[in-house]
Amino acid sequence: MRTFNNLPIKRKIIAIVLLTSMAAIMMVSLVFVVHEAITFRNDVRRELCALAEIIGNNTSAAIVFLDGKAAAETLAGLKAKPNILNAYIFTADNELFARYIAQSARKDFLKAAKTPSDGSNDGSKADYKEIIAGITAESQSFLEWEGILVAAKPVMLDGQKIGTVVIVSDISGLGRKLMAFLVTGLFAMVGALIAGHFISSKLQYLITEPLIYLSRKMKEISKEKDYSIRVQKKSTDETGLLIDGFNEMLSQIESRDDQLRRNQKYLAEEVVLRTADLTRANREMADTVEELKAAKEAAEAASLAKSQFLANMSHEIRTPMNGILGMIDLLLETVLTEKQRRFAETAHGSAEALLRILNDILDFSKIEAGKVKIEETAFDIRTVVADVTAIFADQARKKTIELAKSIDRDVPTACLGDLVRLRQVLTNLVSNAVKFTSCGKVIVRVRKFGEGDRVAALQFEVTDTGIGIAPAQVNAVFDAFSQADGSTTRKFGGTGLGLTISRQLIEMMGGAIGVESEPGKGSTFWFTLPFKPPPDHSSTARPALGTHRDDGVRDVRPRLPVPDCNVLLAEDNPVNQEVTRGMLENLGCTVTVASDGREACDALLKAWYDLVFMDCQMPEMDGYEATRAIRGYEMSGIGSAGENEACHQGGIRTRNARIPIIALTAHAMDGDRELCLAAGMDDYLSKPFRQDQLADILIRWAGGTPPGTPPPQMGPGQPTHAKNSDDCVERPALAGSAINRAILDDIRALQRPGPPDLLRRMIRVYLDDSEKKLQELRDGVRASQASLIRDVAHSLKSASATIGAVTLAALFKELEMMGRSQTLKGAPTLLGRIEQEYVMARAELEKEMPAR
Ligand code: ADP
Question: Cβ neighbours of residue 802 under 8 Å, at least 6 residues apart?
């Protein structure tokens, strides 16, 4: 069956047709043979019966009359029937009466019946008597036996059986006949098979051809992958339906393909879009990262710029103030009319007020930038309070208000804390109290607020009977730039920063600040601070620089006589040299000027000096390096210290082998102090400084201090007021002029009687020096040497500002910044502007020279 299943349809169809035809023919042949056999037998039986009947009728008389002969003759008539082999007539007693044996008969039926031919006696061959006995009067009997048919019929007469006729017929022809039929049927079957094969071979195309066509098309489609092809239908039968189904399937595949293609296209477009989005997003992200990086760098640069700005602010703002205050100081030293003195003093007061405001703003920015650090020094609270109240005593007296202080007995004498900041806060509170009080009193109280193991908490109170503050404004007074009343600024001035700075400082020191106030009645500003005891309780707290004062009017002039000192001034800038020299000489000092650290060292090796004022930033060798070198000499016992010790017997040198070195720096930033200390300097004077500050330093370091007083610790100088033109001056020149005349006038004011002409000399020095440096600058810009540009521009900036070429100084400053930030893109253009401005400035300066 499996083999059949695997056959091609063509063969299957042929096989089915052939098998069907064969079965049909076989069936027909069988039916025919069986029918023939039955018909033949029946015909033979009918014939034999008829013959027996006839013979019986014809022989009944002979039987009755026992005429055997007549009976035999009747039987002999059977000769005409070739198929009759034997015929017998038996009497009623079944005795043989007559017989007929055909000539061609093979054997005698009676003999054969009695003696089976094979000798056996299996009973299947009955005795003829038994046959005859079985035949009744009405019936006849048949017996088939080895190709013979035996028929027995009784012979009746008047209803009486008188005998029996037995006829034996040969029926072996039936088998032959049937065989012939079978052979014929076989031939018919073979013929039919051949015909069937032929026909089915021809007709199977009707079925297989569409299928083959369909399968070929399927192969083609699957190979070409072309689903637009359609199979042509040639009939509406099952094959047609199959083709329809296949075509339908192709349509669906095609439409799915279309859909798929559309989806693919859509997907591809989506992918392109998304990729573009992604690329854009990536680009944006990269841009953002770049921007952020740039912003970060800008922020860092801005932070750096801010720090530099703060440093520069110190320079830039204090520098002109130094000029103003220094000159007024010098002016006040000269013979003046009463009116002129008043004017000068008013100008001095205004300049100091301005400097205070500037200091406030600077302080505020420094605190905001986190650049203020809280220091720890040992000091005496009582001294601090006395100092602060002393500052305002004069002002209070003028306003006829009482200024008092009250310090509880249990307040420790020696404390460890930030003296400068404490004094700053206290000064601000007392200053406000005096400022906002027109009658009554201002009291400063200090009491112990609490005490721990190692810490004493002190409460400071400044109570006044002044204008007070409205409840709504009470909380705002500590906010930056805020004043209780808008009219305050108009009436009392101020920036609104003092209390903000105070609060920030107090909080940084771990304390708290507050106010209680009633409008019209007065205010109490208080703050608390924790103080540690100094490491050595027994020692008296050392006084802060120049702060030890009694209550009373604050004297801006030195109270002690300034010793005649031999001072070495190490300062590179000619105008600074002149200003400081002017002040020192006014104080009675002999001044030697060194232009840089190396010259200073050389000078110290050659001569004796009581004190050195050392500018920190100088060419060749800066102040720090020079100080280190000097301290090195001193340690090794050679050089100035040893020589000085040997030849000088007076002043501090007999008590102190170290020569006092006082730093002069225009950088009022944190860290400077530490740098100076680390280099080995003893004290620190921040530019701008006043003549009286110089005097204080001389008193402290060159013999004014009573013997036995411990050397003062190094700390920042007093709030600085004086001017130093070390750096760029932001005092604009008049429109159309490259030089600020006021600065030239300042220089002229330093001129002492007798030649040489200071201004003339300075202009000459400046022009010679600047020509050289400008050439260096040109080379530096050409070679993009940022550090060279920075240094040379810095030097030119300073010199130009000093000589009054302020616009030029500003341009040099810009170039210096470029060098500092190493962004030299605009340097050539800027240099072009500098050259133009320089030509103008030089022309104006040269005009000044013949005149003086
Ligand atoms: P400034 O005094 O420079 O304006 P402050 O921060 O020191 O700035 O003070 C802020 C404001 O607080 C003052 O302008 C004033 O309105 C108010 N204030 C401060 N102290 C007193 C005081 N003792 N009495 C009345 N008002 C005061």
Answer: 573, 574, 575, 576, 725, 726, 729, 743, 762, 766
Residues whose CB falls within 8 Å of the CB of residue 420, separated by 6 or more in sequence, listed in order: 375, 544, 715, 716
- β-pair partners for 380: 414
Give, using CA atoms, the residue closest to atom 9 of ligand 1. Answer: 496
∠ Cα 10 11 17 (to 5°)? 95
Residue 500 CA: which ligand 1 atom is closest? 6
Residues 681 and 714 sit within 8 Å (Cβ to Cβ): yes
Of all protein residues, the one whose alpha carbon is nearest to atom 13 of ligand 1 is 483
- What is the distance between the alpha carbons of residues 112 and 126, in angstroms, rounded to a whole number? 10
Q: How many angstroms separate the Cα of 405 from the Cα of each of 393, 436, 770?
A: 11, 18, 57
449 Cα: distance to centroid of ligand 1 (angstroms): 25
Q: Which residue's CA is minimally distant from atom 17 of ligand 1?
A: 484
In this structure, the residues whose C-beta lies within 6 A of any atom of ligand 1 are 428, 432-433, 436, 464, 466-469, 477, 483-485, 488, 494-500, 523
How many whole angstroms separate alpha carbon 843 and alpha carbon 682? 44
Mean pLDDT over the full length of the chain = 78
User: Which residue, by CA, sits nearest to atom 16 of ligand 1?
Assistant: 484
Token reading at 187: 């031939």
pTM for this model (two decimals): 0.38
Which residue, judged by its Cα, is nearest atom 2 of ligand 1?
494
How far does the centroid of ligand 1 lie from the alpha carbon of residue 497, in Å? 9
Residue nearest to atom 20 of ligand 1 (CA): 432
pLDDT at 693: 80
Whether the predicted pLDDT of 41 surpasses 90 = no
Residue of 428, 434, 436 to test ligand 1 pocket, by largest number of atoms within 8 Å of CB: 436
pLDDT digits (tens, 9 = 90+) for 604-618: 888 888 899 998 888
Q: Place 420 in a pLDDT band, splitting at 50, 70 and 90.
A: confident
3-state helix, strand, coil in the chain (%, to 5): 55, 15, 30
Residue 180 has pLDDT above 80, yes or no: yes
| pLDDT interval class at 173 (50, 70, 90) | confident
Between CA 568 and CA 597 the distance in angstroms is: 11
Average pLDDT over residues 471-491: 72
Atom of ligand 1 nearest to the CA of 360: 3
Of residues 546 and 671, which shows the higher confidence score? 671
For tokens 């309070």, the residue is: 385
Smallest Cα–Cα separation from 66: which of 40, 89, 43, 34? 89
- Among protein residues, the one whose CA lies closest to atom 21 of ligand 1: 432
Q: How far is the centre of ligand 1, averaged over its atoms, from the C-alpha of 487 (Å)?
A: 12
How far from 842 is each of 485, 579, 849, CA to CA, in Å? 51, 23, 11
Please give the average per-residue pLDDT across 466-478, as a whole number: 88
Measured in Å, residue 519 CA sits from the centre of ligand 1 at 13
Q: Are 123 and 114 in contact (CB under 8 A)?
A: no
Pocket test for ligand 1, best of 469, 475, 481, 495 (most atoms within 8 A of CB): 469
Distance CA(806)–CA(554), nearest Å, equals 36
Q: How confident is the model at residue 559 (pLDDT cuts 50, 70, 90)?
A: very low
Quote the ligand 1 centre to 365 CA distance (angstroms): 19
What's the 512 CA to ligand 1 centre distance in angstroms? Answer: 18
**CB burial of residue 660 (10 Å; 0-12, 13-18, 19+):** buried
- Picking from 354, 534, 351, 361, the residue whose alpha carbon sits closest to that of residue 454 is 534
